[in-house]
Every structure is written in structure tokens, then in C-alpha cells.
């Protein structure tokens, strides 16, 4: 239906028209296949400028935030609880248990100067991914200037990961949660 195309063209617009630093752009996808597809389409559209953009799955981002890696998983004797890892990342981003100054410093270190967060297939996120996206975007922060610009594409008729906990509830709440201006394809 063109959702990923819209997302990739939005990234290209940010980089080529608005002259945003590609290193300040974070793109989140539901799975590795989608991340590879976004990277390929972006490279095809804007060439070398695409290399600075971070394209990641929610789980890979959470693992990076808490200091884990997929390589270490291969050495582990038991499978990881990815939902738990995502929620640990959310706790870190929110700075729970820290003073406001410490929490802000930790958050700034963790998000590495990202200013823009773009989410592909928003209808396929579950409660944990929703919490991670909200924490990365800074939805609960009082200071509006510390919040990131959030752009999401999705179709509530195409939720195919309900078996894995994804819910269309989150895409339906997006406009209210973020005071968003929806555009329909």
C-alpha cells in the first residue's frame, strides 16, 4: 500500500531538503527483513547519504541500550526474554530511580543525539515496543524541546503479528497520544 515508500521518502526529505544530519535519524522496524528493506530503498534513493541513518528493529535497539548483543545470545544456553530486555531499556530511558539531572544525562547518552524517530508498520507493535518508542521519543518528558519528532506509518487493517502480541490499539491511539496529524494514502 506504499507505507514503507512514504517512510523512506520522508527520510530522504529530511536529509536532502531539510538538510538534517543523517546521524540524527533513527528508523525502527518490526523485524530484520524490514530493516534491510528500508536500508536498501534508502540507499537506492539517496545513495551515500543513507549510511548515517540508523535503521534497527525495536529489539536490537533495546539490546544496544542495555548493553547486550546478538552475538552473546549465540553463546547463551537459554533463549533471551526480549520483552524483558525492551522493558529494561524503557526503564533506562526514563531514568527511573535517578534524579532529574541524572536521568536527563543518561537519556542523552543513550539516544546519541537522535532528533527524528520514524517507525515502519506501526500496526505491528505490541505493548513493549509501544513503551520503547514512547520512551525513545520522550513522550513523558515535560520539556517539549527534549522530545523527538515522531513519524509512523501503518495500516490498522494489516496487523499480521497479533499472535506475537501486536495490537492495532496503538496505531488507533497514535493521533491522541502524540497530537499527530494523520495523512491517509
Q: Could you characterize the architecture of this molecule?
A:
The chain has 185 residues and is α/β, with parallel strands linked by helices. It contains 8 helices and 4 strands, in the order H-E-H-E-H-H-H-H-E-H-E-H. It has helices spanning 3-17, 32-46, 58-66, 70-75, 82-94, 100-111, 127-137, 169-178, and strands at 25-29, 54-57, 116-119, 149-152. Strand 3 (116-119), helix 7 and strand 4 form a beta-alpha-beta unit. The longest helix has 15 residues, at 3-17. It starts with a helix and ends in a 7-residue tail after the last helix. The model has no long low-confidence stretch (mean pLDDT 86).
- Tell me roughly what share of residues is in helical segments: 40-55%
Query: How far from one another are the termini?
Result: 8 Å
**What value does the Rg take, in angstroms?**
16 Å
Please outline the major beta sheet.
4 strands, parallel
Strand percentage lies at: 5-15%
Shape by Cα distribution: globular
Strand order of the largest sheet: 2-1-3-4
Structural class: alpha/beta
Give the count of helical stretches. 8
Please provide the count of β strands. 4
| Mean pLDDT value | 86
- Report the order of strands and helices: HEHEHHHHEHEH
Poorly predicted parts: none
